[in-house]
Amino acid sequence: MAPPIQFITGNANKLREVKAILEPQIEIQSQSLDLEEIQGTIEEVAESKCRRAADLVNGPVLVEDTALCFNALGGLPGPYIKWFLDKTGHQGLNNLLAAYEDKSAEAVCTFAYSPGPGRDPIIFQGRTPGRIVPARGPSKFGWDPVFEFEGKTYAEMESAEKNKISHRARALKKLQTWFESQQETA
Ligand SMILES: O=c1[nH]c(=O)c2ncn([C@@H]3O[C@H](COP(=O)(O)OP(=O)(O)OP(=O)(O)O)[C@@H](O)[C@H]3O)c2[nH]1
Ligand SMILES: [Mg+2]
Fold first, then answer.
1. Counting ligands in written order, which one lies closest to the CA of residue 81?
2. Domain segments of the chain: what residues?
3. Of all protein residues, whose CA lies closest to atom 9 belonging to ligand 1?
4. % of the chain beyond a pLDDT of 90
5. Can you give the C-alpha Rg of the chain in angstroms?
6. Topology annotation, domain 5-185
7. How many Å apart are CA 97 and CA 111, to the nearest integer?
């Protein structure tokens, strides 16, 4: 049996999805720490969060950072989506693309795992392509109502359906494969 993983997040929706996808194979324990999020690429943000978390926890940690990248805007808002969503809402995200024909976007989930303080984080990334649309479906989680994948917004999907194709599920598949290979060599 694999040892439990400490997942550091302040976001209950993320935690629920991570548990739904990984358990029972991998047990998830969680802590909420307010980790500074630097400016930089998606990978740099996740890596720096992970190093800080490993120092604070003084042990192995998993962190995650989510980005929503609009292709017409060269990948922005990217890792800054949280602040764009907070300040402009679902309609505002649509308005950002009003001047462009291209409404395509990519949801990007980046997990970073560190075995402990001072150890280099390992990155696992999953990407799901989609489109930004006027909000449809229940507003339970962030920008789920405005991100459409193959005709349905994330918010219109049952959680099991989203958890099969989401950016988070794709990243966790890579993480799971890596953890399994570590167990075999241990
Ligand atoms: O509709 C959504 N479907 C998703 O699947 C999803 N995953 C993340 N988010 C939102 O995108 C921003 C990422 O920012 P973020 O990665 O820094 O997260 P966070 O600050 O909430 O938590 P954490 O950093 O403590 O883990 C935050 O606004 C999250 O609510 C999502 N919204
Ligand atoms: Mg955050």
1. 1
2. 5-185
3. 142
4. 92
5. 17
6. Maf protein (3.90.950)
7. 28
d(CA 173, CA 18): 11
Q: Is 0.90 topped by the overall pTM?
A: yes
Task: Quick: pLDDT tens for 17-71.
Answer: 999 999 988 999 999 998 999 999 999 999 999 999 999 999 999 999 999 999 9
Ligand 1 atom closest to 33 (CA): 25
**ipTM score of the complex?**
0.98
CA 62 to chain centre: 12
Q: Which two tokens stand for residue 75?
A: 């990948």
Tell me the H-state helices in 74-125.
Answer: 81-96
- Give the integer Cα–Cα distance in Å for 67 and 79: 4
Q: 182: exposed, middle or buried (C-beta count within 10 Å: 0-12, 13-18, 19+)? A: exposed
Joined together, the tokens standing for residue 153 give 């917004």
The encoded tokens of residue 184 equal 């075999």
Most ligand 1 atoms within 8 A of CB, residue of 9, 14, 65, 125 to mutate = 14
Q: What are phi and psi of 2, to 5 degrees?
A: -70, 145
Determine the distance separating the centroid of ligand 2 and the alpha carbon of 37, expressed in angstroms.
7
